[in-house]
Structure formats: C-alpha cells, structure tokens
Write a structure and sequence with these properties.
Helix content is about 25%, strand content about 20%. It is an alpha/beta fold. The chain has a 7-stranded mixed beta sheet with strand order 10-9-11-12-15-14-13. Strands 4-3-5-8 form a 4-stranded parallel beta sheet, with no helix packed on it. Strands 1-2-18 form a 3-stranded antiparallel beta sheet. Helix 2 packs antiparallel against helix 7 and helix 4 crosses helix 6. The two termini are about 45 Å apart.
Length: about 375
C-alpha cells in the first residue's frame, strides 16, 4: 500500500506558502521607543542588526499546513495497492452442482464468472449475456491485485468463449469439473420460408426456389412467396434478391443479422471480401459469401436451371442450399482443456483508490483550527 498523486502538476499551488509568510512579516508587533535616562551615554545613531522574525509561530504553521493540504487535494491523492483477498475463486456457468463448493480457507466467497461477478447463492447460474468467458477473465486479471491468486472451476465444455486460450498476467489454478447435462436438448432451428424479389415469371429459378421452399417446409402453404416492389419481405423468411442491381440499404437493414441470397445477375460489390463457399468438381465457384452492411450476402454465380447448374437436379440440392444459407454461429464452444489460460501478459497497473473525500474532511478540520486560532482571545490580548 503506497500513497500517490494523479496530478502532480497541481503541487505548484505550494507557491502560495509565500502569502502567510509575508503576512506574518508585515503584521508582526511594532516596537515603540521608550525614553530612558542612561540612553544619552550610548553612541549616537546605533546600528542594530536586523533579522527576520515571525510572530505567532503556531498560527503560521497551521496556515502553511492548510495550504499544503489544499495543494495535495488539487493534485488528487490516491492510494495504490489496497488490501485484497489472497485468493479469488470463480465458477464458469455450466458445471455440475457438486463442483460449486466453498473452498476452505478462502478469504473471498466463490463467485460466478458472469457480468458483475455475483456471489454463488445457489446452483442456478446467471446468464453471460453479451459477455464472453475470455473477456471476463481479462477483466478479473486487470482488476485483481497481483498478489491475489485466481482459481477457476470450468466445465468440460465451455460455452461463451470467443476464440482460443486467453493470455493473462498471472498463473491460474485451472480446475475442470463435469459439465451439467441439460434436461432437454434444443433441436435445430426450423427452415425459413423463401421470399423472392425481382424475379420474372418465366425465370426457371422461380420453379427451383418454389420446389426448395416446399422441400424445406412441406406442410406450409405459405412457404414460398414472390414479393412485389412495394411489399416488405416477411421477418422469418429467407430473402432472395433476383434484381440486376445491388440490394438497397433498407432491405439490408431489414435482413440485419440474417442472410440475403443474391441471384447471378445481382451486382457484385467489388470492395467486399467475397469468399468461395461452394465449388463444383472442376473447382469452379458456384456460390460466394461476403458481408453486406449488417447482413450476410450469399451470391450464386450461375443461373438456377439444369442447363447452367446441374446440381439442381440432385435430390440433396435443398439440403445443400439450406446449409449454405444457414447463419454461421459464432465460435463459442471449446473444451476446457484447450481453453486453459496461459501467462505472459504484462501486469496491469493497480487501480488507485480515491482519497479526496477524506482529504476534504481533513482540509475542513485544519481550516476550522486556523479560524479558531486566528480569533483566539489570547492572541487578541497579545496584539
């Protein structure tokens, strides 16, 4: 634990020390000559030695102390290296209930590795929300003092990771516990409907897309629809853009977070980073993908008819197209063994603790003492 200043330049206010010094020099008690008979035998015009002399030393010292405290207060006094528990234990949501135990000897109770790091009051784990396990570990590593040991109890498979292992500034006591088995596994998301914009009535792709929609949703009479220029595509539908130009900004915003299927005649943005996602046996690109504002565009390079794309005659073509337009989930699952944190990152500077509220109280007390001493009856009688 050490004392520090966040704005040392404010110490220039200590130059105000000259004010009480000059004030006490100017207001010292004046001496009056007193006639005395023996003075006539002394040498005329004596030259006494002059020296600086301050009157009322206690009041002067209190005033200097008050100015020093004000200058330090402006420099923002802080305390580094505040006391902290010797060990922190956090539990990643997803472990079995038996692994959530209080470790004997810990100064701090176990907490969930979740936003806010709440204490563990029961087996129900809080939701991670938009936070990831990696970002929460980095936050802990940054906020905990270097002398605090970090212990993490993680399930065998971690949900909510944003990549590979995370590098920290401290070694972590990494413990792997069995993962909790969910009561009911969530099934795959149902296939979407298909809404097509800008397709001609005699376009062979119209029949192909209608057949794909029926294969995806055989019991849905509204699985396929041709959207007019003034209509808005359905929110739960895969939007297929068959115009020759590029999709407008309103449509891209409508499909934000989803997939926009582009026909071969659609304009190809040259500034986008197009990646091939489907090739034929000869290596020719059949479909490519790129980001379109907040949506993902998948563009077919050939017309949807047997003459240009024989794959449409394959019974597995609806499943292949479904795999292409399915939004790619973020890489969020990783085994705890592969996710074990590494070290090597430089230590973060300690978070200072603000002392200005206490400093203000100290300044007020010294100021009250200075006012009391300045108005003291004893001092007034001496003056």
């Amino acid at each position: 634990m050490s004392f520090g200043l966040l704005a040392p330049v404010a110490l220039a206010a200590l130059a105000a020390w000259l004010l009480p010094l000059l004030l006490h020099l100017a207001r010292r008690d004046a001496t009056r000559p007193t006639p005395f008979a023996a003075l006539r035998w002394l040498r005329e015009k004596p030259r006494p030695r002059r020296r600086l002399r301050f009157d009322d030393w206690p009041l002067l010292l209190v005033r200097l102390l008050l100015l020093a405290l004000v200058a330090l207060w402006l420099a923002w006094p802080v305390l580094h290296g505040a006391t902290a528990p010797a060990r922190w234990t956090v539990v990643v949501p997803g472990v079995v209930d038996d692994a959530i135990t209080v470790v004997a000897g810990d100064e701090a109770p176990p907490r969930w590795l979740a936003p806010g790091f709440p204490t563990i009051d029961g087996p129900s784990a809080p939701a991670l929300g938009t936070a990831s396990v990696s970002s929460l570990l980095r936050e802990l590593d940054m906020t905990l003092p270097m002398g605090t040991t970090l212990a993490v109890i993680a399930p065998e498979v971690i949900d909510g990771a944003d990549g590979g292992p995370v590098a920290l500034s401290r070694a972590v006591d990494w413990r792997i516990a069995p993962s909790r088995v969910e009561d009911a596994a969530s099934g795959p998301a149902p296939a979407p409907r298909i809404d097509v914009l800008g397709i001609e009535a005699d376009d062979p792709a119209l029949r192909v897309l209608r057949a794909v929609a029926r294969a995806w949703r055989p019991d849905d009479a509204d699985a396929f629809a041709v959207v007019g220029p003034e209509a808005t595509p359905r929110a739960d539908a895969l939007v297929a853009w068959w115009h020759e130009g590029a999709p407008d900004a309103d449509l891209q915003q409508h499909v934000a977070g989803g997939v926009l299927l582009l026909g071969p005649a659609a304009a190809r943005d040259p500034n986008a980073e197009w990646q091939p996602i489907w090739r034929d046996a000869d290596g020719e690109v059949l479909a490519e993908r790129a980001a379109c504002a907040a949506a993902t565009c998948i563009r077919l390079t050939r017309a949807l008819d047997p003459a240009h794309l024989p794959a449409v005659l394959d019974p597995e073509f609806p499943s292949r197209l479904r795999a292409l337009v399915r939004p790619s989930p973020a890489p969020g699952r990783i085994t705890a063994e592969a996710f074990k944190p590494t070290t090597g990152v430089a230590a973060y500077p300690p978070t200072p603790r603000d002392l200005r509220p206490w400093w203000a109280l100290l300044v007020a007390l010294v100021f009250a003492l200075e006012r009391w001493m300045a108005a003291s009856p004893r001092r007034n009688r001496a003056a």
